[in-house]
Design brief:
Layout (H helix, E strand, L loop, with lengths): L5 H6 L5 E4 L10 E5 L3 H4 L1 E8 L2 H7 L7 E4 L12 E12 H9 L4 E2 L6 H13 L5 H4 L6
Antiparallel strand pairs: 1-2, 1-6, 2-3, 3-5, 4-5
């Protein structure tokens, strides 16, 4: 079981928002990422990536628009500065130990605001609608 620093333990839950560079992405840029599971119980984080490249994502997923969730700056004031989108066909899995290590090394920024419950539910629904996300990942995400 991972040792989770108290400050992280208090903020780590479904809907938590973090900002960091993820090695599994093709982009070297940092992105906002949203936790979509219960990481402390499951010992793993499942994250969706927020991007401002709305048209590019819509085009790439034009046959499965129900797996996309759009966010506005009003949804996350002081975090998002422009309209954004989450492609719920792409869920990144990071072990809790690895995440804690990166947190301790200050590679990850966190925010004191969580995603609103209605948008957490929209992410759940979109993940479960995906034909790309494996069933073993869906099993760790609560049903909408």
């Amino acid at each position: 079981m991972a040792h989770v620093p108290l400050e992280l333990r208090l903020s780590l839950r479904e809907g938590s928002i973090y900002y960091f560079t993820e090695r599994k992405l093709t982009s070297a840029q940092s992105h906002f990422q949203i936790v979509v599971n219960d990481p402390l119980t499951q010992q793993v984080l499942l994250l969706t990536v927020v991007t401002s490249k709305i048209e590019k994502v819509r085009y790439r997923r034009r046959d499965c628009l129900e797996t996309l969730v759009e966010l506005s700056p009003d949804d996350l004031p002081k975090i998002l500065t422009r309209p954004s989108i989450v492609d719920c066909n792409r869920v990144i899995r990071i072990g809790l130990d690895e995440f804690c290590g990166r947190w301790i090394r200050k590679e990850i920024a966190s925010f004191d605001k969580d995603l609103p419950a209605s948008l957490c539910n929209a992410l759940r629904k979109a993940i479960h609608a995906s034909k790309i996300v494996p069933d073993e990942i869906k099993a760790l995400v609560a049903r909408p």
